[in-house]
Design a protein that fits this description.
It is built from 9 helices and 11 strands. It is of the alpha+beta class.
């Protein structure tokens, strides 16, 4: 369960070593290792995370350096600055990240519809697959740590505070998304820990949020999932992830895509799912590039023919 450091509500944070000044706009979130603020620096908006534990903060900085590039079809934050802040005589380490423009995951789904849930989950699972292969588990995976960018919609993550080396104890978690809280497994960092969190995110996005922990939690979870009509046809996939049946994010992603393909839906949304699922395929990217160039050429040619036709018509009537 997350705990908080001493609550700070600064208006200005100045770097001890660089002298850079960050004007605090508002708080974005708080976790076990620190508090994240929306700040401005020289007219640019950034996310600044400040904490008390220098070792924990440096660990997060190292994670950002490793995963700041887009992976698995999902964006992540880029490290901007690392420094210390002298707060009332106390030295507090902090770092700043770029702000990824977009909507909160739950806000996006409310606006655009649940048809986007499997699309975004496929993107998320692609990122988790690469994260796990690199020896890390996300840990504190929840909607609050996810965003959806603007057109085209793409999943993005921020705040690496919960990321944990494979095999170690999860260092930061939120109860609803934690399998240990539900008695569905340990808090050891492994791929299935994150997949349980993905399943719980799906439950929340599909409106199944009234489940209570009890002596029969496992049976209750399965019953609620399999009887929740809004989850059809993803009930089996969600339950398998929750029950630890998938050994990897790749397995869950494949099962989710197969469930989508079996779902009666219009061709436009089906193609959206396929496009997002293969967004990182080099052949797919090359094909898209060719198609885009061909369309541009045809449009330009059509425009030239239109101009020529206008010219010929004008000559007839002169």
């Amino acid at each position: 369960m997350t705990t908080s450091i001493k609550q700070v509500k600064p208006t200005l944070i100045r770097g001890k070593w660089t002298g850079h000044e960050y004007h605090v706009q508002r708080e974005l979130g708080e976790g076990a290792t620190g508090t994240v603020y929306l700040v401005t620096h020289q007219g640019r908006q950034l996310a600044l995370k400040v904490g008390d534990d220098a070792y924990a903060m440096m660990s997060e900085v190292n994670v950002l350096k490793q995963f700041q590039k887009a992976r698995g079809g999902i964006l992540g934050p880029s490290l901007v600055d690392v420094d210390d802040w002298i707060d009332d005589g106390h030295v507090r380490p902090f770092y700043t990240m770029n702000v990824i423009a977009g909507s909160e995951l739950q806000t996006f789904i409310r606006r655009r519809g649940r048809i986007w849930v499997p699309v975004l989950m496929v993107q998320l699972l692609g990122f988790l697959e690469e994260l796990h292969q690199s020896g890390w588990v996300f840990g504190d995976l929840k909607p609050d740590n996810l965003r959806v960018t603007n057109e085209p919609p793409r999943m993005a993550w921020f705040d690496p505070g919960g990321m944990t080396k494979m095999g170690r104890s999860i260092k930061e978690y939120t109860e609803w998304y934690d399998r240990g809280f539900w008695g569905m497994g340990s808090r050891r960092a492994e791929p299935r820990y994150d997949l349980f969190s993905v399943a719980m995110i799906c439950l929340q996005l599909y409106g199944l949020t009234h489940i209570q922990r009890s002596d029969q939690t496992k049976a209750t979870l399965k019953s609620q999932i399999m009887s929740h009509s809004a989850l059809h046809p993803y009930q089996s996939v969600v339950w398998q992830a929750m029950n630890g049946d998938f050994q990897s994010a790749k397995q869950m992603k494949q099962a989710l895509v197969q469930a989508w393909q079996k779902k009666p839906t219009d061709k436009r949304h089906h193609n959206t799912m396929k496009d997002n699922a293969s967004a990182t395929d080099p052949k797919h990217q090359k094909h898209n590039g060719f198609v885009n160039k061909l369309l541009s050429f045809l449009l330009f040619s059509s425009f030239l023919i239109f101009l020529l036709a206008l010219y010929l018509v004008s000559q007839v009537f002169i």
